[in-house]
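Lab channel / #folding
Pinned by the channel admin:
"Please post every new chain as: sequence first, then the structure tokens as a reply. Keep commentary short and put observations after the output so the thread stays searchable."

First post following the new format, from NK:
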Amino acid sequence: MFNEEEVIQHTYQRLKEVMDRCGDAYELVFVNDGSRDRTAEIMRDISSRDGQVKLIDFSRNFGHQIAITAGMDYAEGDAVVVIDADLQDPPEVILQMIAKWKEGYDVVYGKRLKRHGETIFKKVTAKLFYRLLSSMTSVEIPTDTGDFRLIDQKVCAVLRGLKEKNRYVRGLVSWVGFKQTMVEYVREERFAGETKYPLKKMIRFALDGITSFSHKPLKIATYVGFFLSFSSFLYLFFVVFQKLFTSWTVPGWTSIVGVNLLFNGIVLMLLGVIGEYIGRIYDESKDRPLYIVRETRGYREGEPESIQRRGSEYERS
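Reply from TO:
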């Protein structure tokens, strides 16, 4: 949850109705990712009235993928279902996922047939990104899927051992393997509020996905460097031809400007690609906790810690 005060009550009610129908024991773990509105306040009230609801309240906004990670860290059921609070992913699909899980599958992910309420630009760029990522990595990451999925607890236990900071959860779930399948569904329009993934965050998310599972951008940078260097060598012949056989240019100007612009562009581009990877190495080397929990609700005092958590708790209530 991030600034979902307009929708969170409806999310809780729909999840409650669906899970009551499944017939199994369950808990609802809500992760508040540093919301600045009344989201946490509303969830505290719900948690005080419903013993099956638990709240994990971050000290600030740590990001969507970290919030998902924390939810899986704290969830203690035999299986975990990851779902965003905006109701674009219909909670009713959870029942189909549970049915597949009971058939013996360890991971059941939702595959989007249609995406209502999204711009053409977002649909096209999302489709291109999934296919680009698939072509750049040896890990088979399903296309047209999000983080909406059911994950068996033994898979969650393996994921807790993966320590990287710049996380791409759906890619990690594919990387660990196990028996996986899908259920298809139509993604709905947001129930209320605004998207929490503007273009800037989408680009950052795409970079995390690509750099987490592929080093091909470094190879591409090398190939581009060779290509542009070869092109500049050919251009040098053209400059020499101008100098010797024409009077089209001011002596020396074309060669100096052309070569400088070309090679400066090459250097900056390569530094940018390398910098993305170095930045991630730097994040890993600091070894900070993935998240900081300001407060928890719905957990009993002195309740034993049955799982390894990668966050840091400031207060427990």
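NK: The chain has a mean pLDDT of 77.
TO: also worth noting, The radius of gyration is 25 Å.
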